[in-house]
Amino acid sequence: MTLNPLANPKGTNLNCELCQKPAFIQCTKCRVTYYCSVEHQKADWVGIHEKICQSLIALRQGAPFLPSQEERQKRERHILMKKTTMIDLTRTTGQKLLFEGRHEQAVPAAMQSLRFAIDVHGLDSIELVPSYLILGEASIGLGRLSQAEEYLAQAQWTVLKTPSCSNAIKSKLYRNLGLLYAAKGEYDDSLRQLADDIYHASENFGTNDIRTSGGYFHMANVFFRQGRMEIADSLYRQVSNIWYNHLQKIVKIRTKTPDTPQGIGPLIIESSDEKEDTLDEAQEAEAIQVLNAIYDMQEHQQSRQPQDLATICHALAMLYFILMDISKAKEFGRKAVVASEGHPDDSLSRTIVEFMKNLESQIQRVI
């Protein structure tokens, strides 16, 4: 079985960017993209085209005449590099839109990522799987479960016939299958798939990595739907702690005071051994979605533990500090202070208070 929305295009330039039907509308900015309707043009613009409009010009215009083989090879390498960059950009955008719950808008980004992946890697490559997974997850979010099954079946078949497939891709596949079964109400099958997700993610990234935490989060959601709150709470707590530790590392490096050079002689600047972890757009959106979802549950749960609420509030405060949303960082910081006062362990309170001092210090520096 094959399912590839781009495998059999009806033309080269005059087909709709989204549905491949005959196109009658041209993008007036890049003039290399076409649509069958204004609706599809708007959907593509909001989903991905605004980000890549000008970049498409060099990729879709005819190649100039180059007299030497060396120049032609140099241009081919340049085009290949740009297409590879576009794969990363469109996939990250698609994932970001999924985490924001904008499933309809994620489809154009996924379609573009699939198109570039086919151009670079061919129709049967394992490199197409991440794009199929974004399309599958978008279909699940839109309630189009039969379509999601087809995309995920294509991804699964490609993984099975690729012995060298990475654990990272397998993890994402099993996560999407877990989401599909959960959407169908088949919770036992969903939990099995999510367990496989966590296993492969742990093999690739470790058990306490933010890229593994998504499996714990979705598994917690399944237990929550089953009313098995004790298990769900323990998994939500694990997700909170993973993100808490990751964000704390970033904040620690960003708020570190540079060492003051001492002695006489030329200034020698030593590079720090600490390397700052960063969040890409998709990870930022994931953190916002996941941590706010856990916070909402903690806030409305009468049996919550003070430390759990303090931890998630502090994690959100650090996240918004990293995102430069100072008002939200202060809001959740204050909530973390209040929540930690009900916990006998003073170390958490001291950590939160120290963060709030650093936050004020950073604000003063900007002013």
Automatic annotation (TrEMBL):
Residues 16-53 form the MYND-type domain. SMART domains: TPR. It comes from the Eukaryota. GO terms for molecular function: zinc ion binding. Signal peptide: none annotated. InterPro entries: TPR-like_helical_dom_sf (IPR011990), TPR_rpt (IPR019734), Zinc_finger_MYND_domain (IPR053248), Znf_MYND (IPR002893). The keyword Chaperone does not apply. Keywords: Metal-binding, Zinc, Zinc-finger. This is MYND-type domain-containing protein.
